[in-house]
Design goal:
alpha/beta, 6-stranded parallel sheet, 4-stranded parallel sheet, 10 strands, globular, binds D-glutamic acid
């Protein structure tokens, strides 16, 4: 049994975005071994077709299943939207957690507090209508106003997270009437929590104080924990390993990974 418990949690994204989820999982479950896969050779996912995102997602899941991950976290909204169902069909016995359903569950509980909510995400996530469809299916009373914000991921990946260019881009997007008069904003891309303070600053500057900015980092770890508890697979290793694999080495990935996990991490190149 201990052998099963020490199998890693597998987490993946197109790039650095999923590190926000990985960090939250490590904080909640510090004794777990972890493999993170950043598909940096293929980012951004959000501008690609559903077929292409599905192909990338399947090959990463194949790899993580071969690594005997006890739970796989699709730490990417675009991949969750494009391929969640597909990977569940391919691996019905593997615990696979996406980043969209926990948000839907959150709104099932708290939707009454939010009349109008903005959703910003990649082109793929927005055009898939997955949030809108799931809100409808769950009878969530919140009106969801969705807007694609495709410039944010490249700016984050190319190291512009602290730049005034990013401020301009955020202002341009959020000033849009598409998401006017909202009282919550869903960050529907796992890259966006990296620049969460920028969104807060935007609203502060406008003296808008009644907006909740919600992202999956606060929601997903509980799902991972429940999945492990339900199968009696919580690990108690005092010095767990954390592996960071990328399909292409990028400075920005190394920087953000170091920022989140400290200097001692080593990036390994792993093409699939
Ligand atoms: N972080 C991802 C998401 O949540 C992917 C962004 C991208 O590669 O376009 O959608």
């Amino acid at each position: 049994m201990q052998e099963l418990r020490s199998q890693p949690i597998g987490i993946f994204d197109s790039g650095v975005g999923g590190l926000t989820i990985a960090k939250a999982i490590v904080n909640a479950l510090p004794n777990e071994n972890l493999i993170y896969y950043g598909d940096t050779a293929h980012l951004p996912y959000g501008d690609k077709s559903q077929h292409t995102i599905q192909a990338y997602t399947l090959s990463i899941c194949d790899f993580l299943v071969k690594q005997q991950c006890k739970t796989i976290v699709i730490a990417c909204n675009s991949a969750s939207a494009a391929a969640s169902q597909l990977v569940h069909e391919k691996y019905p016995d593997v615990s696979i957690i996406n980043v969209i359903d926990p948000m839907i569950d959150y709104f099932k509980l708290h939707g009454d507090n939010y009349k109008k909510t903005g959703l910003i995400a990649t082109k793929h996530t927005v055009s898939s209508n997955i949030y809108q469809n799931k809100f409808k299916l769950a009878n969530i009373p919140t009106q969801l106003l969705a807007m694609a914000t495709p410039l944010l991921v490249p700016l984050i990946e190319f190291g512009y997270s602290n730049s005034h260019i990013l401020d301009e881009v955020i202002s341009d997007y959020l000033d849009s009437c598409v998401i006017a008069d909202i009282n919550a904003l869903i960050l529907g891309c796992t890259h966006y929590p990296i620049i969460k303070t920028k969104f807060h600053q935007f609203f502060e500057k406008k003296a808008i104080t009644n907006i909740d900015i919600i992202d999956a980092t606060t929601l997903v770890p509980a799902y991972v924990r429940s999945s492990l508890v339900a199968r009696d697979l919580l690990n108690n290793d005092a010095s767990p390993y954390r592996k960071f694999l990328v399909s292409d080495y990028t400075d920005s990935f190394a920087e953000v990974a170091t920022l989140f996990f400290g200097d001692d991490i080593k990036l390994e190149l792993q093409t699939l």
